[in-house]
Every structure is written in structure tokens, then in C-alpha cells.
Amino acid sequence: MRFTLSFIVVSAAWLSGCGGSEPQPKAASMQPAVAVQTAAVSAQQWPAVYEATGTVRARTATVLSSKVMAYVREVAVQVGDRVREGQLLITLDAQDLESNVRRAEAADAEVLSAIPEADNGVAGAKANLDLAQSTFNRMEELASRKSISNQEFDEASARLKSAQAAWEMARSKRVQLDSKRAQVQQEIRGASIMRDYTRIAAPFSGVVTAKTVEPGTLAAPGAPLLTVEREGAYRLEASVDESRLPFVKPGQTVEVELDSLDRRLTARVSEIVPSVDSASRAYIVKIDLPVVPNLRSGVFGRAGFAMGARKVLSIPPAAVVERGQLQSVFVMEDGTVRTRLVTIGERRQTAVEVLSGLSEGEKLVSPVPAGLADGARVEVR
Is-cis flag, bond preceding 224, omega within 30? Predict the structure, then answer.
């Protein structure tokens, strides 16, 4: 009797669970369709671009150094300062060189003081010569009439020759003084130039980018003190593979991207260094950059060289959903959407290259509405 009652209770419970009611619909099918817009995966011809990386360098830069050995007395600039052409940057101790100038000037004054005496000597010698010449002329006339002895005539001739020699000697001493003064003046100019080397000025207007000197240090000839770059004149020195060099020509227009400035520039190839690096098998291509505010040497850059065209699959940028390092799209399938992972290549303002995950002609949701999930019902509007 107890067994029969248990069987009836279990049977009643089973029958109540397996009644004739229909299954409940899924929650997703009860949700309204999301209004979306679509875009097709299209095949396009994109310019093939070879990207070369490089570093921005100043077209004109100079390393300032001393031509004389002297202690640094004053440094008037710091790194980052803008300087103008001719501006005094470094002053060296010039005491010894100043003494050389004063010594040469004193020698010039001594020579100058001797010139009047030499001029007087020349004038006196010329007067004696004129007198001896007149005396000799009279003696010569008297000798022709046999009015004087041969001894007297010879004495007059000797006095003439002696006066002539004295005049030549006086003139020679005067010329020597002129030569001596010219030499001393050259010494003054040389000493003055050496003294001026203690004042180091900017060769052109620009920016100080390096400084290796402080007051009190000993400046040696050739040792770098300051580096000055001409502002507004920069170029990108890009490394181009040897196999890509036929696509690069002087004067060619290229697109340059500077990461630190977040800018794209249109630039021009100015020079191709003819030597190749034996380790990297690459050439250095110099690309002149336009004037850009805050551009400095050392900035990393990329240059894009056109190499014909290539066929790509492209989609609108708004169709791509990015989560960390993953990119996905929503593909239309019979009124619903399915999430599909894709691999993205080159990005442009109006299109994105798809490397894998899609086929030409497939329909995608673009732009992607907020909250759209895999399997959601959609309605194209």
C-alpha cells in the first residue's frame, strides 16, 4: 500500500513537469532589432610605400672651439639659448696676447721715431752730393784748360764719389726703416688677431645645443666648447635599404612623419650619400624638412617612398572595434551580427587595410553602435 502511494506521487510530479505547454522563447529573440548602417569590404588600389626610419639633423651646425690655449673667463650662454650672428658667447683670458700686441705697438713707435732722423740724413747727404757735383764740374772745366793739377782733379772726383755713396747709404737706411715698419705692423695685426681669438662669437643665428665648457676651465685648441645649430634648417637622414635605392631620386617628394611632434610633413630628397654601410647594406638619404616650430635635431622620423601600387581590402575605420591588442568587426549574417577577429594593416583617414579575417563584398556594421553584442538582431537603415 505504501509503495503504491509513492508511485502515484512521483507520477503526478512527472506529469506536471511534462505538460503540454510550449517552450519559452530565448531572451535574445525578444529584444528589438538594433538600427545600424553597413559598409562593404572593398578591394582598392593603394600606393605601395616603403618606409625608412631616420634621425633629424641640422643642415647647418658648427662646433665652436678655441684657436689659442687660454683659461675661460666667461661663458655668456646656456644650452637651449637662441643666439644671433656675431653675438659674444665665450671670453678667454687675453693678458699674454694683449702683452704681445703692446710689445709690437711699442716696436712700431720706435721705428716711427727714427724716420725723421733718417729723412734728415738723406737730405744732408743729398746736399753734400749736390755740392760735390758742382765742385767736380768746375774742376773738370779747369782741368780741360790745364788750369789745375791732376791731383786737384782727382780729389774733386773722389769727393763726388764719396758724397754719392753717402747719399745712397742714407736712402738705403730710410728704405730699411720703411721695411722694418711694415714688418712691425704685420706683427701688430698678427698679435691683434690672436688676441681677438679670445672672444668667441656666434658664426650665425641659431640655438645652442651642447655646452662642454665652464668659466675657469682651460680651453685647448680644437677642443669643443659649444655646438650651435642654425634654427629652422633641418633634414631627416633616413637609412634606405640597398635594394630600395632605385626608387629614391634627388628632388623626389616624400611624406615624413615625426612621432614626437605628431605631424606629417611633405619634404624633398636633397642628397643621397654615395657610400653604403657595409654592415646594414643601407644608404643614407638626406631629406630637407620645412620649417616646423619646436623641431630639434635628434628627433626620430619616418619617410615614406612611393613604390607603385598594391591591391588591398579596405573597410571604414568606424567599423573596427579595438579591445587592447585585438581588433574585431561585426559581420552581417541573416539579420544578425557576428563578431569576427581581423588583422589590421595600414591606417588612413578614410579607410583601414585588412590583412586577414574578411573577404571582399562582406557587409559590416559601420559605425558600430554602443552596446552592440555578438548575435544581436539588427535592422539596416
Answer: no
CA angle 361, 364, 368 (to 5 degrees): 160
User: Where does the pLDDT of residue 30 fall: very low under 50, low under 70, confident under 90, or very high at 90 and above?
Assistant: low
- Asked if 191 and 104 touch (Cβ cutoff 8 Å), the reply is yes
Q: Which residues of 183-216 are buried (b: 16+ CB within 10 A; e: fewer)?
A: ebeebbeebbebbebbebebebebbbbebebeee
The three cell numbers locating residue 69: 690655449
% pLDDT > 90, the chain: 56
Nearest in space to 312 (alpha carbons), one of 356, 342, 366: 356
- Confidence at residue 277, expressed as pLDDT on a 0 to 100 scale: 82
Beta bridge partners of 143: none
**Grid cell at residue 163:** 758724397
- Residue among 304, 315, 298 nearest 362 (CA): 315
Kindly tell me if the per-residue pLDDT of 332 is higher than 80.
Answer: yes
Residue 8 has pLDDT above 70, yes or no: no
Contact between 302 and 257 under an 8 Å Cβ cutoff? The reply is yes
| Contact present, 332 and 39 (Cβ < 8 Å) | no
pLDDT at 5: 34
Q: Residue 205 has which C-alpha cell?
A: 643665428
The answer to whether residues 241 and 233 touch, using CB atoms and an 8 Å cutoff, is no
pLDDT tens-digit profile of 93-152?
989 889 999 999 999 999 999 999 999 999 999 999 999 999 999 988 888 888 888 898
Provide the strand spans (E) within 230-362.
234-241, 253-258, 263-277, 282-288, 300-315, 321-323, 326-333, 336-347, 352-356
Cβ neighbours, 10 Å, residue 225: 22
CA–CA gap between residue 346 and residue 355 (Å, rounded): 9
| pTM more than 0.70 | no
Cβ-defined contacts of 259-268 (< 8 Å, 24+): 259/299, 259/300, 259/301, 259/302, 260/299, 260/300, 261/292, 261/294, 261/295, 261/299, 263/292, 265/289, 265/290, 265/292, 266/290, 267/236, 267/303
Cell triple for residue 362?
Answer: 562582406
At 366 the three-state DSSP class reads coil
